[in-house]
Amino acid sequence: MVIVLFGAPGVGKGTQAQLLSQRYGIAHLSTGEAFRQAIQQGTPLGKQVQEYVHNGLLVPDELATAVVAELLAQSPYRERCILDGFPRTLQQAHALDELLAQQGRSVELVINICVAEEEIVRRLLARGRPDDTEAIIRQRLAVYAEQTHPVLEYYRQQGKLHEVDGNADIETVHQRIVAVVFNTIGPLGDAASLHRASE
Ligand code: ADP
């Protein structure tokens, strides 16, 4: 089972993916985190992606897809997985479908978190990551509108897209997402109750 958390930079995908991951005990795969870690550690991948990430551009599809392919083949991601930050282009979406089909699974649900653009800029400036300067934020939003937004239509046509209003506090947005997961996939059990049951 694969759930994709979707949305513009700054809508809170990472935060919400982590909450969902903890709640249900499902692995969380963030391509942005994977790239930032590689950059910080100075790995060959890090050197290949740093110019793109720091300038608010997308890492080339082939590279991003290769990284995801490798991770999805490994535990824990080859079981249940929440994807955050991938796919970001139509080409990545097609590649993901092929990858998952080879593993006998598919994207089950895509949750689009919607937040107004000015609120996004405000949140990102407050976060202050190295790629969170106003100019780079505007660049990332433009890249999103041009290259990533079309992916929504792809999933909408497959009936997999669900929208969640992200203009609320973290816990409220989390509850909205949990409701969508429950209504579409059904009860997943939560990690805390599974843990209690095994005690
Ligand atoms: P945000 O959602 O705030 O933009 P992310 O952590 O998801 O932050 O991504 C940070 C950066 O990592 C992006 O601006 C881009 O350079 C790179 N990146 C992340 N995911 C992908 C992807 N699927 N394809 C290409 N580049 C990506």
Quick take:
This protein is of the alpha/beta class and 199 residues long. It is built from ten helices and five strands.
How would you describe what is shown here?
The protein is built from ten helices and five strands, in the order E-H-E-H-H-H-E-H-E-H-H-H-E-H-H. With 199 residues, the protein is an alpha/beta fold. The relative contact order is 0.19. Adenosine-5'-diphosphate (ADP) binds next to helix 2 and helix 3.
Present the secondary structure layout:
Blueprint: E1 2-6, H1 13-24, E2 27-30, H2 31-41, H3 44-54, H4 61-72, E3 81-84, H5 90-102, E4 107-114, H6 117-127, H7 134-148, H8 150-157, E5 161-165, H9 170-184, H10 191-197
Parallel strand pairs: 1-3, 1-4, 2-3, 4-5
Features:
Rossmann fold, binds adenosine-5'-diphosphate, single chain, alpha/beta
Along the chain, the helix and strand elements come as EHEHHHEHEHHHEHH
Biggest sheet character: 5 strands, parallel
Helix content: 55-70%
CATH homologous superfamily placement of the domain at 2-27 and 80-188: P-loop containing nucleotide triphosphate hydrolases
* Beta-strand content bin: 5-15%
- The CATH class assignment of the domain at 2-27 and 80-188 is Alpha Beta
Number of helix segments?
10
CATH topology of the domain at 2-27 and 80-188: Rossmann fold
The structure class reads alpha/beta
Ligand inventory reads:
adenosine-5'-diphosphate
Q: What's the architecture of the domain at 2-27 and 80-188, going by CATH?
A: 3-Layer(aba) Sandwich
Strand order of the largest sheet: 2-3-1-4-5
Topology, number of strands: 5
Ends apart, CA distance between termini: 26 Å
